[in-house]
Amino acid sequence: MKSSRLISIGLFIALSLGAGLSYQQLSKYSSSHDWTNNQRFSLSQSSKELLDTLDSELIIEVFVSQGALQNNIFRYLQLYKEQSGFISLKNINPAEQLDIIRTYDIRAEGTMRLSYKDKATFIDDELSEARILKALRKIQPHSRYQLVFTNGRGERSIVKTDAAGYGKIAQQLKNQALSLSTSTLDRAIPPSTHALVIASPLEAFDDIHLQKIQQFLAKGGSLLLLLDPETAGIHQTFLGKLGIQVAPGQLVDAAGSEVGLTDPGILYLPALPANSIQKTQMQILLPRSAALIADKSWHVLAATSPSSWNEISSLNSGKIAKDADSEIAGPWPIAFYQQSEAGRVIVVTDSDFASNAYLDTLDNNQWIQRIIQWLAAGSDINLPQHLASDAQLKLQPRHAGIAGFILMFALPGAFLLIAFRQKKRYA
Predict the structure, then answer these.
(1) Which segment of 73-77, 127-131, 152-156, 406-410 scores lowest on mean pLDDT?
(2) How far is Cα 103 from Cα 97, in angstroms, rounded to an integer?
(3) Which of 194, 181, 226 lies closest to 355, judged by CA?
(4) DSSP helix/strand/coil, 34
């Protein structure tokens, strides 16, 4: 009996010592793992690549008082500091630095000032990776992605605000700190170009133009080719060099009437699958589209429903019906993508969906942005994640000490006491 009691006491002491040593080590060292949805507390590849380009000190000054907001901001910014040794974090208490507050006209708690070399910018609206990435691109010019839209052959204009123009999407991309410009293929493609956008050219490219595009792709450049059913045929030579063909006719889908569409030529795609480009399931509207056929090096990005077919006759001819002999039922691919060491290419047989008239329809806006971002950056740029206000247990030091004592000593002791009494009872 006496030996059993000594063993119980010894176990209690050993358990208590083990718990105490564990607590001591845990208080000295820390390890973190991001198990959150979409990895909200992990940096994307875009941010990592940009931070790797830093060759001088990047100072991030945070104008915030002590408290929960300060802890959240610096906990998040620590991800950047761990990624690059050039980053310095500074906290400025607005109540103690009134002169600086007036100089920089700081009006919001949590405002950040990022300065790199001779440039600086402020973040005062939100704390998110997308917002920080945009700010970093403003002060690190070598990190800005260059998108060149071709012109000279009737392509969509990135400055026009009419229904057919691309002015709206162009402005949104500029707001993300992407650099947009236009160039004719009669001249050399600017060497700083990351992605070339060819949006609905009305004239075919000659052999010299096609050679320039192929050389650009061979050097690792990316291409977005947007065509329309009415003019896709004149680009068969171009598409053939890419390993793609356009099927005859225009795609129609009578199922659109179920969602109120009276024009069978307007395609409603209710569930584009999530992938490395689209990230999440999307629904888009395509005013006019043609069917695509591609070799095995291409992957389908978007396709029509099984109730669609390629209508050979004109849609203005009146009532349409599928011809079993010459028209083939869907699903038909309307967008392909290809990724290789030579570059990234996306081909879509509809350019209207990204125009000013249709950009804000369903997920059209998000889809074109995801496409361009994937081409230009090779990863997600416009990240929607924001710093979440996670639920936290906050204890005063005295209460924390009581909780620690209960967890490390009282509870183990209670279990040992119960075990000892049970053993004594049945002895």
Answers:
(1) 406-410
(2) 10
(3) 226
(4) coil
Query: How many other C-beta atoms are found inside a 10 Å radius of the C-beta of residue 328?
Result: 15
pTM for the structure as a whole: 0.62
Q: What is the DSSP string of 185-214?
A: TTSPPPTT-SEEEEE--SS---HHHHHHHH
Find how far residue 260's CA is from the centre of its chain: 32
CB neighbourhood size of 14 (10 A): 10
Would you list the domain boundaries of the chain? 44-141, 145-377
CATH number for the domain running over 145-377: 3.40.50.880
Identify whether the C-beta of residue 86 lies closer than 8 Å to the C-beta of residue 56: yes
Question: For the chain, percent helix, then strand, then coil, each to nearest 5?
Answer: 40, 20, 40
Q: What is the pLDDT of residues 87-111, one digit of tens each?
A: 999 999 999 999 999 999 999 999 9
Tokens of 229: 């059913």
The beta strand positions in 208-355, using DSSP E, are 222-226, 244-246, 250-253, 267-272, 282-286, 292-294, 299-303, 308-311, 333-340, 343-348
Superfamily of domain 44-141: Glutaredoxin (3.40.30.10)
Write down the residue that tokens 């229904």 correspond to.
163
